[in-house]
Structures are given as C-alpha cells and as structure tokens.
Amino acid sequence: MSEPARTPLVVVAGPTAAGKTQAALRLARALDGELVGADSVQVYRGFDVGSAKPTATELDGVAHHLIDVLDPNEEVDAQRYADLADVAIGEIHARGRLPVVVGGTGLWIRALLRGLVALPPVDHALRGRLEDEARRLGSPALHTRLSAIDPLAVTKIHPNDTLRIVRALEVYEQTGTPLGELRRTHALGADRYRALFCVVDRPREELSARIDARAGAMLAAGWIDEVRTIIARHGLTPRALSAVGYREVVAHLERGLPLEETQARIVSATRRYARHQRTWFRGEPGVIVRCGPEELTPERVKGELAG
Fold first, then answer.
1. CA pair distance 193, 215, nearest whole angstrom
2. What is the pLDDT of residues 192-251, one digit of tens each?
3. CATH code assigned at 135
C-alpha cells in the first residue's frame, strides 16, 4: 500500500444537492478513477433513498467504496472513517488508478486529509459543572465567557449551542489553550495526502430549488417505506435515523405528521444543513478549486494535478 503523503487524490466536496456525485463520476470515468464515499449516512446499508446514494445504473460500472459497508447499528466516527478510507485509497492507488473522494461530511474529510486535533478525553465532573452553569445562567452567558478566552472558536459557535460551548470551555480548562488555537495550529500541520481539494456549489436560489425538488422525488421514490423497513428491522436505535430528512420521516411515522408538512420540514432542515456545509467548507484550509459542478471538468483537474 502506498504511503498516504505520496498518494495523489481528488476530493469533491460541497453542500447537499449541489451535484457532487455527478461531478465525481464524470472525473472518475475520464481519469481512470474510483470513488471513495465521505458521507455519514451512505456508509450504512439500507439508507439508500434518503441519502441520495447513487444507484448501480448511475454508477454504470464505476467502483464506489465506503457506501453500504456498515450495518445500521454499527458505530463510526471520523477516525474510523479515515482508517477505512486509507485502506480503500491505498488499494485504488496500488491498482494504478486515481482515488476520487466524494461527499459532504466535512469532519470526515478533514480527518482524512489532515487528521484530527488531539484533544483530552472528557472530564465528566468538569463537564457536569459547566452544564449546570449553562442551565442556571443560560448558554449565552457561557458564550460571552468563551468569547473572552477563545475568540477563534466562539465565532463559529451559536450562543445557544450549549454542547459546543461547554466542550470549548472544557478543553480550555483542561489544557490552558483555547480550542480555536489548537485547531489553528493543527490546520498548519502537514497534509496526510497530496490532495486536490475541490468544493462545488451552486447559486443559493438554484440550490434551494434543487433541495425542494429532490425532497419530493425522494418521497415519491419510497423514502417512507425505506424508513419503515429500517425501523422494523433495527428499531429506532440507528444513529443515522437522526440524520437530516430521516428524522423528519421518523416523526411522520411515529407522530402521524401529514405528508405535506413532513416534506416542508425535510426541505427546511436540508436547507439549514446546506448552509452549515457552506460555512464549514468556506473555512477549510487546503481548498484549491471552488466552482460549480459543471466547471469541475476532467481537463481542469488534470491541469491542477499536473501543476
């Protein structure tokens, strides 16, 4: 297996519904490549319609690794994903082919390209104290405290995001170093791969319309029956059932929400998720190409790789 740092690969990332899979398939076909998924829902077997998992017809013979590799109740985090992806990428490169990583799970892509920031384990006593303060004083008060000690991290954390505020304060109390500074230093470290990192996107109105249309198409394609089958086989425990869209379909089945309201909730949640993805990839280091999916041509990629 090749050493990661010497292995060239292409990453096609971006917000949901932007057309990442189609762009990656176009590159793989033209550049003798194979796809490696970076999607925290497509990795699970049975989560097909709602994750926009490419069908065999769409793939048309292009190999796609790290989709359908885990049972719904298996756990996977960014580190395990990076380990699995390392193996797939090494095997692709050993065959003399180009690995094309495609997906929108930003933390997974970061773990693959740069590794993860080394943070101390959770101190449950400290976390309990901070959570109690958040309940008594309110999350915005802790957010204000965080702004005084960690200006880098606080700009990316909403004042009501108790979980992330508490974690940032916890890390600072454990290490004496702000979480934002730890991440900044980590981002300046050596790359794990020789990667052409591409982020594809569309104009906001166009992406919003695609999200709306896709939600209707997925529901028409049997999304509700898919979730019903997952629940019948695995119960409500699979973590992926809390993913965007899936949790709204679960609410439809469990609480009897009308289909029209369910579709509206899916669209709204997906639009929020797309905004989050945009913000994430806007701040990621190492992005070389930012363009529309149709602009990410094989000729452009070959030129960037050669340069």
1. 35
2. 999 999 999 999 999 999 999 999 999 999 999 999 999 999 999 999 999 999 999 999
3. 1.10.20.140
For residue 125, what are the CA distances in angstroms to 120, 163, 177?
A: 14, 15, 19
Question: pLDDT by residue (tens digit) across 138-181?
Answer: 999 999 999 999 998 888 788 988 988 999 999 999 999 998 88
pTM of the model: 0.84
Maximum distance among all Cα pairs of the chain, rounded to whole angstroms:
59
**Is residue 98 located within the same domain as residue 227?**
yes
Residues in the chain: 307
Are 156 and 268 within one domain?
A: no
Q: Which of 7, 93, 6, 76 minimizes the C-alpha distance to 38?
A: 76
pLDDT exceeds cutoff 90 at 268: yes
Please give the Cα distance from 306 to 131 (Å, whole number): 51
Tokens of 243: 């993913």
Phi and psi (nearest 5°) for 197?
-95, 110
Q: In 3-state terms, what secondary structure has residue 95?
A: coil
Domain range for residue 148? 124-187
Give the type of residue at 120: P
Task: Tell me whether residue 203 is exposed, middle or buried, using C-beta atoms within 10 angstroms of its C-beta: 0 to 12, 13 to 18, 19 or more.
Answer: exposed
Closest CA to 72 of 223, 234, 226: 234
